[in-house]
Fold this sequence. Notes:
There is one protein chain. The protein is an alpha/beta fold. The chain has a single domain (about 5-325), classed as Alpha/Beta hydrolase fold, catalytic domain (Rossmann fold), CATH 3.40.50. It is about 35% helix and about 20% strand. The protein has 13 helices and eleven strands. The protein has an eleven-stranded mixed β-sheet, with helices on both faces. A hairpin with a 5-residue loop joins strand 2 and strand 3. Helix 2 (about 115-130) crosses helix 3, helix 5 packs across helix 6 (about 205-210) and helix 6 runs antiparallel to helix 7 (about 220-230). The chain is globular and about 50 Å long. Keywords: Hydrolase. This is AB hydrolase-1 domain-containing protein. It holds the Pfam family Abhydrolase_1. InterPro entries: AB_hydrolase_1, AB_hydrolase_fold, Epox_hydrolase-like, Haloalkane_dehalogenase.
Amino acid sequence: xxxxxxxxxxxxxxxxxxxxxxxxxxxxxxxxxxxxxxxxxxxxxxxxxxxxxxxxxxxxxxxxxxxxxxxxxxxxxxxxxxxxxxxxxxxxxxxxxxxxxxxxxxxxxxxxxxxxxxxxxxxxxxxxxxxxxxxxxxxxxxxxxxxxxxxxxxxxxxxxxxxxxxxxxxxxxxxxxxxxxxxxxxxxxxxxxxxxxxxxxxxxxxxxxxxxxxxxxxxxxxxxxxxxxxxxxxxxxxxxxxxxxxxxxxxxxxxxxxxxxxxxxxxxxxxxxxxxxxxxxxxxxxxxxxxxxxxxxxxxxxxxxxxxxxxxxxxxxxxxxxxxxxx
Length: 327
């Protein structure tokens, strides 16, 4: 049995969702090409892929034979944040956007340890199961320490890096991290953990991440932060999220290793940054030039979730950047 309905409409695209008898959802997104004003079609598949550590939910679109772009989301979101970017990139590339463990619709067994090493391990196995051996990676927020771990493990596999507020430098950490540093200094103190839950996981905190620094909050789709907040409320998820904030301290000692990788690999990097972000601040974007003089830095008048408000500009920058690098 097949049911069809229009799921989303905008001046840029509309989406038809088809549910089949399997768990796969097929999204047929018709987007307006900015160069021709014609409507073109992109098929987006939502699927689950079992790995040894998790059942990974992911979105994919584009020709299977095309070069791969891996989109890694951040806190507190999921692959849903890329729903509008995927059709733009899928015109030329095979786009893969998994939900990280603890987020979105990826399911994990009891006893899973929420560390960035484990997040990277899940994504690594995900790529292996899909036989992906070369890819460009879009790193945002938590996607940065996850994706850069992959780059350390398989440097020859990474063709290019697009960092959208994805940090690899000490100077990129904003004041947002000050209360979390207290958790680090006090050895994961339960009292501090308890204080961080409302500060970081409340509806207001989730909405703030989307709206802070934007030119107008009216351009933010409210379902974005409503969905994120709803998924944060799942039983046990608060502990998982605070565990990841606690483990984030282990990313900082890796920054020099990430930077050494940049220097040795000379990997093409596009740092496209919401310059008004208070979580990962603009100096973190400029810092890429220290290790990669040819890194391209674009500071946009946007906040943390720049991809929500500047989707078309970011998509165009990525297509141009990858094209000029022969990808």
